[in-house]
Write a structure and sequence with these properties.
The chain contains 27 helices and eight strands. It is mainly alpha-helical and 580 residues long.
């Protein structure tokens, strides 16, 4: 592997162009303003003291800025991964406790090690294990759980998290009679303001003369402005002392230094499934965002390098007071829109967050928890996408059902089991579809050498000759279905003398399918019918040649094209039987 691929920063840092500096500085500043409230909120969502959100936004972001193949992806705490962290650790320790913190560090390191191993073995294909319906269902279900988890802060009540989602709902319902109405008013106001600061405020600012860029900037720093407003309300009106509005509380100054995780071996073993789920979900989100934003600038990302970069970032997070991190969608979009050109934007953001942790941290002690909860709710509410469920259902009942099953699994069983159910269901759906491949009886379009489905086109067919196109690779799960359907065709057409299987869409044939083809040729031969193949792809034909398949096929032949098969089997002179 070239040094530039292993250390992507050598591509831009050693040949840095001055024209990129303005965009990188602007993006670094804007993402910092946006990241502060998010990192604090996501740390509390993960069950950790808020300062750990800042810690997770310093060294991991710096490491990814140097090693990541995407120049605009912004790495740090994200809502879904924070929820998965809380879900994974809740059975082993009390949130916010010292043991819980050590387990969070451990989980980050485990996540990073797994990503590093996968990257070293170039296993970037793991992103393909999550189909779009599963990803959409997982994000929607997780977002609903995140909203539910934050409602106790909005109502100002004490409610247990519960090991399963429904337990948290029951606990919240039981606690509602003790609602703190001042907290609820602050929460509702904060949510309303954050919603208004998005699209409505941006449109209003444009109407009064602000440029598109300035209007977007104001709307995106809305959460930071709300944080300042919340701290001001506590300071001037004493809402915490007078009305019991909960605040973040003690907020240490400085950086954590080198931190050591818990090394309880039984717990490590128990956390492996959670770490794998975080790796899968986090990697898919990062690669998806990196690819979509990179495409807008005709830039590409290297999936395997992303695994290495994210792995290094998570290991660094675990040893510097953080928790599992990944690339965030909203931050990355802001980073891109603000003009980030290289990883320097991430380095600037990391440096600014470090400066805030060193010098301004105590000011966050008076930050109302309800403001952070409102920030989380508004950030994830837009990810709840039931319209996509309806769209998928209209397009494909199977894909719509797959998204629905994933949502229900996440809501009913939790995020880790939910994503596992989604992956399992998608694999089963794939096998089910592949086990019933599309098979078309085809005929020739008049005046051409093109062959199309007899059910869709007016085509010419030939007495005693059946042309069948198989639109799927052949493997153990679908060969019986194919043989059964061919057998029915034989029973329905007693005049048949030749069957041609068109392999134009067959990319592979496994050993079970090979044996089935040999058996089929023998069975048909006993009925006076000859089996032929056409348009066999080179790699498939190479394997056939290695085992002498054409001998089992004889007197059947392998034709270069369907047209040549028709010519030969209708009495034309023999032609070459070598496949392409």
């Amino acid at each position: 592997m070239k040094l530039q691929n292993l250390l992507p920063f050598t591509n831009w840092l050693f040949r840095y162009e001055r024209k990129n500096l303005g965009g990188d500085i602007t993006a670094g500043l804007i993402v910092t303003v946006m990241l502060i409230p998010q990192s604090l909120a996501y740390a509390m969502l993960a069950g950790l003291p808020p300062e750990y959100g800042l810690y997770a936004s310093i060294v991991p972001l710096f490491v990814y800025g140097l090693l990541g193949s995407s120049r605009v992806l912004s790495v740090g705490p994200v809502a879904v991964i924070s929820l998965m962290t809380a879900t994974a650790l809740a059975p082993f320790a009390e949130p916010f406790s010292e043991q819980y913190i050590k387990l969070a560090l451990l989980l980050a390191i485990m996540t990073g090690v797994i990503q590093l191993v996968l990257g070293a073995f170039r296993a970037g294909f793991v992103a393909n294990l999550l189909s779009h319906p599963v990803v959409a269902g997982f994000i929607t279900g997780s977002s609903i759980l995140i909203v539910i988890s934050q409602l106790k802060h909005i109502f100002g009540v004490q409610a247990a998290a519960g090991h399963l989602p429904y337990e948290a709902v029951i606990s919240l319902a039981q606690a509602l009679p003790g609602t703190n109405w001042v907290t609820l008013a602050m929460g509702a106001s904060a949510i309303a303001l954050l919603v208004l600061m998005r699209s409505p405020l941006r449109k209003l600012l444009k109407r009064v003369g602000l440029s598109e860029g300035a209007a977007q900037l104001v709307s995106r720093i809305g959460p930071a402005l709300l944080v300042l407003a919340g701290m001001g309300a506590i300071f001037f009106f004493g809402l915490d002392a007078r009305f019991g509005v909960k605040v973040v509380g003690e907020f240490p100054t400085g950086l954590p230094g080198l931190t050591l995780p818990s090394l309880d071996l039984p717990v490590i073993g128990a956390l492996v499934p959670a770490a794998l789920a975080i790796v899968l979900a986090g990697y898919v989100e990062s690669v998806s965002v990196g690819r979509s934003l990179g495409a807008k600038r005709r830039q590409t990302i290297e999936p395997n390098q992303e695994l290495l970069a994210l792995g290094a970032a998570n290991v660094a997070s675990g040893f510097t007071g953080g928790f599992p991190v990944t690339g965030g969608f909203s931050r990355s979009v802001v980073n891109y829109d603000a003009g980030a050109n290289t990883g320097l934007a991430s380095l600037i953001t990391a440096a600014l967050i470090a400066a805030i942790a060193l010098f301004l941290a105590p000011m966050f002690a008076s930050l109302p928890q309800v403001v952070l909860a409102a920030t989380v709710i508004v950030a994830v509410a837009g990810l709840v996408n039931f319209k996509e469920l309806l769209r998928l259902w209209r397009y494909s009942k199977a894909d719509g059902a797959l998204m629905g099953v994933t949502i229900l699994a996440v809501l009913g069983l939790g995020v880790e089991i939910g994503i596992g159910v989604g992956v399992g269901a998608s694999l089963l759906a794939y096998i089910a579809r592949s086990s019933r491949p599309h098979i078309a009886v085809v005929g020739r379009l008049a005046g051409s050498e093109h062959f199309r489905n007899v059910k869709r086109h007016a085509v010419e067919t030939f007495p005693g000759l059946l042309l069948v196109r198989i639109d799927e690779s052949l493997f153990f799960a679908n060969t019986r279905n194919i043989v059964d359907r061919l057998t029915r065709q034989v029973a329905e057409q007693p005049e048949l003398r030749h069957i041609v299987l068109i392999f134009s869409a067959v990319n592979s044939v496994d050993a079970s399918a090979l044996e089935a083809l040999e058996s089929l040729a023998h069975t048909l031969r006993g009925l006076g019918i000859t089996l032929h193949l056409a348009e066999v792809k080179g790699p498939v034909m190479d394997r056939f040649d290695k085992v002498g398949f054409t001998q089992h096929l004889a007197p059947g032949r392998v034709f270069l094209s369907t047209q040549r098969a028709v010519q030969a089997l209708r009495g034309s002179p023999p032609i070459s039987t070598r496949a392409a």
